[in-house]
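Subject: Protein entry, chain in single-letter code together with its fold tokens

Area: Proteins and the way their chains fold up in space.

Attached in line: The record itself begins immediately under this heading.
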Amino acid sequence: MRKNIGEMATRCLRHIEAYDFGEVRAMCTETATVWHNDGKGGQTIGEKQERLRPLAGTAASLRFDGARQFRSAHEVLQRHVLRPGRPDGARSEVHAAKHFRFGRYLINRMEDYSCEVGPV
């Protein structure tokens, strides 16, 4: 049975929204890497998760909306609007895209592109 990598990419984002980093890690190869356009270069998936972990305490909610996916045999490119919410009710928007590369139905590379719009 062939797995749908588009659905797998969406499931990964839902785990990120829930701050379920263990499930995100389980979807990745042992050598998975993450790159972000923040100028800091590539990281292992574990290093990226350590940078995200503080969000669980500062963001009241996190949602990826407006997704549009483009798929090939082993890759998914998804664009979306990331909507983090703070405990004080303030919200912002981050226009973003995430590229997933799969190997044997596990994520072996993620590339994050984002541009924060600001408060909404």
